[in-house]
Structures are given as structure tokens and as C-alpha cells.
Amino acid sequence: MQPHDRSASSASSASSASPSSARTEVRPASAQRQRVVIIGCGFGGLEAAKALEHADVDVVVVDRTNHHLFQPLLYQVATAGLPAPAIAAPIRHVLRKQIAKGHLTVLMGEVTSIDTASSCIVLDGGEHLHYDQLIVAAGATHSYFGRDDWAKYAPGLKTLGDAFTIRRRVLTAFEQAERETDPTRREPWLTFAVVGAGPTGVEMAGTMAEIAQHTLSTEFRRIDSRMARIILLEGAPRVLGAFTEDLSQRAQEQLEGLGAEVLPGAKVTNITAFGIHYDLNEAQADGSSKVVSHFLPTRTVIWAAGVAASPLGKSLAKSTGCELDRAGRVVVQPDLTIPGHPNIHVVGDLASARSYLDPQHPTAVPGVSPGAKQMGRKAAFNIMRRMKGQEPQAFRYFDYGSLATIGKRAAVAMIDLPYINKRVKFSGFSAWLFWLFVHVYFLIGFRNRMVVLMDWAWAYFTSQRHARVFPDPHALEPNAVLVRVQDVANAPKPPPAAS
């Protein structure tokens, strides 16, 4: 069993044009071994690099950050439950043994485009890097469904930078509420909206409710943090749509038990610095239903509703003519390659892949971390098969189930037992313990496991979260929504000018 995740690998951005001042790499004429370039060192890219440890190839890993991020616990950093190093590990340290053997190189850089005609990727600054085999594991980014202007008011959660932004905005909202003397103007600061009730949204809403009810309940004099409202808005009829209906209902009940408000069927129509507009289908007295528009005054909105593939998918489509699905993911062949390009594999969130456990009835692979890991290993395996003159194999995804936590002692689990074709479902404290064990087990490094266990144990018994520091919000976002916006109508009049 592996943790349920929304994103499988780190994202890299792309542009369709290459810089004019490109620097093309010159490879030694004596170089005989094939070069495998891996774009992205998230779950898919890291597993591919590890699987090639003993292959007779040169591996180059390119990522725009210097760390591998355990994204299933990223919300814990955003909610001050864990420090960033507890869920992130330096890529060079993780792959140090392969680097020491001279078989692997790590480059920190952003891939701007892929030139399949010359078998090169283009890095920021114009450097061209040649490849014989390419594994693209560039991951996903946020999707605001065509309303990118909402991003400045409703940050998503994909990177450590996103987590720090959300942590700063959430904690600063309580600080601004403490400063506000007008109860009407204070209320939006104590109202928090989470858009999207997938695993990320459910985890965020549940944890924020715990923060308001327990962590901060004795730390302010002018406000009572327990009066804060946490509202989870979901456009679909129920939360956690990937789970069965009974577990979805149980998750909603646990959320409401923690103090969060859940609004299924709420379709967001606009987000501003002062609140969120949404439509809700409401029952009328005569038994009919009517769509009613609402406005929720809030100064803190968190986006957990949409995912879009890395822009590198468009670069691949332009270079190869490959097909993209509605989310911008690359439609791959059964062996995870692009049609007409057997040396280019796409894995993780960037791939629109199917599982061929039953070759007659292939099924879609979900965008979760286990899928990315298995795709990364299969891509590396097929590269080694081709080098031996063997036919590549179709990808087969083994789904062991899904997990989602709601809060302390609250979670839902849906476990598929292999070989006996049986599904086990449970929720509550037992599911929470199982969730905790799985996430600690799959963390990278003994130190990270110990840090997380100690922090969680401390939080369990004290309800305290000590990763609550953040930089000066005014220095980081001088014109953003964190700055106090004075109501013009009630603003004090300036003194009369001297005669």
C-alpha cells in the first residue's frame, strides 16, 4: 500500500521556442554508452533513475529544484505540522551512490523545450543536452479552468513554495483578525475557504479546523480562534469522488465533526481579494430546486480543485505530433512511449496512460504516486529490454487502494488485496493509524521517518504545531491580499489643509 497522492512528479515549465543563443553540447567521439535523460525527479523520475542503477548507460537527471518532494505530506508543511526538510530530500544525496560510480549526473535547471529532431532537450540559458533515451516525468501544475486570474487570491499546493505561501496566509489571517477591532471586518479574516474536496482539499480543511479548534485556541486575547469558519466547497455531489459512496459520506461526517463546513455541489464562479462567489442548487419550499448565487466574504482561499499537465506536454506535441488529452497530458502507447518515437517515454502526471493487466480491457491509470512510481520503473525496464534487442512490455498498473486523512484520529481507507480480488474499507481511528504507518514507511531516509514520527507524536498529545514561523508577509507580498485593505467608506477623514 502506498499513499494516495494527486501529483506524481515535480513539474517543469516549457516554452515552444528555443533561445537564439543556444549552446550545443559536444559529446566525445569515444562515448559508447547510451545516454538516458530523465526530466523531473518526482516519484516517476526518481524510480526510473534508481531502476537504471545497474544498466550500462549514462543517466542525466534534470530538475528545476534540488530536492525530491514527498508530496502526500506537503499539506502538513502548509499547515505548520512539519518542517520542510522532513518531507524533502536533496536529489544528490538520494542518488549519491550512483553519482559516485560515475554513471549518473544531476543538473538543476528548467527544461524549456524538447527538440526531438536533434534528440536534445533545451535548458534555461539555451544549453542543449543530447539524449539517446528520454524519460519525461515533468508532472503537473495547477489548473484554474481558464481563470488564471484567481491564482493570486487562491494559491494551490504543488511545491514547497506553495506550502510556505499557504502557511503564511493562513497564520497571517489570524494575526490580522487580532488587530481588527470591527467585528464585521474581522469576520472575513476568520473565514477560510478550500475549493475542491479531493484528498488535498479534505486534508487541508480537516487540518485547518484542528488548528482553529485546538492549536491556536489559547494564544490570542482579542479573538477566539474556535470561532473561525472552515468551508470546503466541492462542485461534485460528494467529497472524495474517487472513493466509494459510503466512505465519502463517512469522510464528510468526520470533517463536520472536526468543525468544518462542507458544501457539495457548490460551483465557484469568481474569486476576489474579498471573497468567493459560488452557485448552489438549493431545494425550494414547493419541492423544486433552484440555483442560488452566494458570496462568501473571506480573505483566505486555498485552491485544491484542478490539475493540469506540465507545459512540456505541449512542447512534445509540437515536436512529435503526439495527441494530448483534455488536461494536456500526453497520450502514450501501451509501453509508455510516444507514437513514432520509441526512445521517448512519458510517465507520471504528464502521461495519459492505460493499464494492461487485462489486455482486452485496458483501464485508465490514476494520477497518484504509486502509478508514477510503477511507470518510472517500467520505462527504465523497457529501455533495458530494447538495449538487449527484446520487445518492450505493456504497462500494467497494480492498484493497492487509496487513503485520505481528515484529521487526528480521522481518515478513510480503501484497500485492494492482490491475488484474492477483495476490497477492504474502513474509516476512523484505525484508518488514521494505517495512513500514518504507510506515509512514514514510504518517506525517504531514516532521519525523515524519525522526525515525522516525533513531530506527529508531539502534536497528537499536545495539539501543538511548532513549524509556525514565516517571513515578513509585507516584504514578500507588498501588494497582495495580506496587506490590510481599509474600507473606504469607513476610513477616517484626513485633517483639513492648513490655510
Topology at a glance:
Blueprint: E1 23-24, E2 34-39, H1 43-51, E3 57-63, E4 67-69, H2 74-78, E5 88-90, H3 91-94, H4 96-100, E6 104-108, E7 111-115, E8 120-123, E9 127-130, E10 133-136, E11 140-142, H5 160-179, H6 183-186, E12 191-195, H7 199-215, E13 229-234, H8 245-258, E14 260-264, E15 267-272, E16 275-283, E17 289-297, E18 300-303, E19 307-309, H9 312-320, E20 330-331, E21 337-338, E22 341-346, E23 351-352, E24 354-355, E25 363-364, H10 369-387, E26 401-407, E27 410-417, E28 422-427, H11 429-442, H12 446-462, H13 473-476
Parallel strand pairs: 1-9, 2-3, 2-10, 3-6, 10-22, 12-13, 12-18, 13-14, 20-23
Antiparallel strand pairs: 4-5, 7-8, 8-9, 11-19, 15-16, 16-17, 21-22, 24-25, 26-27, 27-28
Helix pairs in contact: 1-10
Structure summarized in a few sentences:
The protein has 499 residues and is of the alpha/beta class.
Which features characterize this protein?
single chain, 499 residues, alpha/beta, 6-stranded mixed β-sheet, 13 helices, 28% helix
Explain this structure:
The chain is an alpha/beta fold. It has 13 helices and 28 strands. It has a 6-stranded mixed beta sheet with strand order 6-3-2-10-22-21. A 4-stranded mixed beta sheet has the order 1-9-8-7. The longest helix is centred in the middle third of the chain and has 20 residues, at 160-179. It is globular. The model is unreliable at 6-21 and 481-494 (pLDDT under 50).
